Amino acid sequence: MNWKEYIHSDPKVMQGKPVIRGTRITVELVLEKLAAGESIEDLKKSYPHLPEDSIKACLLYAAESVRTDITYPIAS
Length: 76
Known about the structure:
- This protein is mostly helical.
- It has helices at residues 27-35, 40-46, 52-68; strands at 7-8, 19-20.
- The protein has a two-stranded antiparallel ribbon with strand order 1-2.
- It has three helices and two strands, in the order ββααα.
- Helices cover 43% and strands 5% of the residues.
- The termini are far apart.
- It has one domain: Winged helix-like DNA-binding domain superfamily/Winged helix DNA-binding domain (Arc Repressor Mutant, subunit A, Orthogonal Bundle).
- The longest helix is centred in the C-terminal third of the chain and has 17 residues, at 52-68.
- α1 packs across α3.
- The model has no long low-confidence stretch (mean pLDDT 92).
C-alpha cells in the first residue's frame, strides 16, 4: 500500500496538515484516536465513510515520517 494514494496536504485545507483525501480528517486525529486505544473498527464506526485502507495509510505515513526525520536523544 502506498500512503500517498490516501493522504495529501493542501495549504487551503486544515492549514496544510496532512488529511485523508476527500475529507478534512487529519492524520493527526486518526493517530491520536488509535494511540488513545480506539481500534480501527471504532474509527470505522465513528467515520463510516473512511475506508480501512485510509486509516492504515495514516500509520504508514507516521512510520515514514519518523523514519526520515532526524531524531535526538530524550533526556530522562
